[in-house]
Amino acid sequence: MNKNIELLAPAGDLERAKTAIRFGANAVYLGGKRFSLRSRASNFEIKDIKEACDYAREYGAHIHVTINMIPHDEDFDGLEEYVKELESAGVTAVIVASPTIIQTVKKVAPKLEVHLSTQMSTTNLQAIEYYKRLGVDRIVFARECNLDEVKYISTNSSIPTEAFIHGGMCVNYSGRCTLSNAMTLRDANRGGCAQSCRWKYHLYQGNQELSIEDCLFSMSSKDLMAVEFMYDLMDANVASLKIEGRMKSAYYIASVVHTYRMAIDEIAKTEKPLSAERIMYYTKELAKAENRPTSIGFYRGLPTAKAHLYGVNGAGVTHDFVGVVLGYNKDTGVAKVQVRNVFNIGSNLEVFGPHIHNEPFVIDSIVNSDGDLIEVANQPMSVVDVKIPFVVEAQDLIRRR
Ligand code: SF4
Q1: CA 331, CA 199: separation in Å to the nearest integer?
Q2: For ligand 1, atom 6, which residue shows the shortest CA distance?
Q3: For a substitution probing ligand 1, which of 37, 40, 180, 221 has the most ligand atoms within 8 Å of its CB?
Q4: What are the residue ranges spanned by the domains of the chain?
Q5: pTM as predicted
Q6: Residues 55-92: pLDDT tens digits?
Q7: 6-193+198-206+218-308 maps to which CATH number?
Q8: Quick one: which atom of ligand 1 is closest to the CA of 172?
Q9: DSSP E strands: which ranges in 14-150?
Q10: Is residue 387's pLDDT more than 90?
């Protein structure tokens, strides 16, 4: 069993990268402003990537950078300089979906590991051996592999494997999609996906509009949630468990990373599969941040439309993120809290963080920055003093129960 399995989290900016690492991710993947599938949304200049690498090193964690576009000839300008800069910044690995980029990285930045993106739809051992000869150091499975395939390939592969455990799924084969190109002229495979699969559509047969349970039809898939397969993935010596979601909030990242960290640590300690009760517990923890319905993806084979299709059934978020602890005075029991969502006297809240797990408390006083007692904290990003009857740390998060 791989008890030291890597928990790999996404980050859309420096704050989220640091949050993921603080809450227990062993590695974070992010995209720079060039050559990445989320390049439009990236906030990472090279200096930010370097800061993320320095921060990760303090925690024994690693930074992976996506350069996973499907490049056309016009896209290679500046590639060599860029990967050299990533190598110098202290990046551990690049996530790649192009043979040309693999060979370029190997030639000009040999200290970088090359991880083959899920975009390359790797589903069999022969493909892995082929990519290994090209210089690939790790492969990310296609999300369409079932659990038996992931176990068989991971047990027999001569290079490490990485499997998705949580987050968005593309409705097309591991993201090989031109829907966004057709609808918006934005190329999903060159960083421009407009998530057109998540739009609502009218369905017609000939001229007649079809009624789909009285709602417009979205072809988007539910998100993946694979808590129940964690033991199997660790037992099969998968090297890394990956969470999707570079566009997600710091609160989402903290909640999801925190939950999977606990699950991995529990399995590593007991060396047993999670009980049904524990799976339910972790599922509820994830629901505190998850804002889309989830499914088990392809892990038990081809999913039915009902199991997979977004909007057929699903769950909402059970908890609201309301604040970030900025500091705590142990003598007075007062915490400085940055307000992110409304809370008031009597609100039933809980704190979670790297060293604290869902500790509940009820708000009995709020003091604003002028020193006035107030009933409601409702100014986003303002800082208030609240009494918390246990020790908390800066950067712990507070949510409404
Ligand atoms: S439109 Fe949907 S299926 Fe296509 S690449 Fe974007 S998210 Fe994936």
Answers
A1: 53
A2: 195
A3: 180
A4: 6-193+198-206+218-308, 320-400
A5: 0.87
A6: 999 999 999 999 988 888 988 889 999 999 999 999 99
A7: 3.20.20.70
A8: 3
A9: 27-31, 62-67, 93-96, 113-116, 138-140
A10: yes
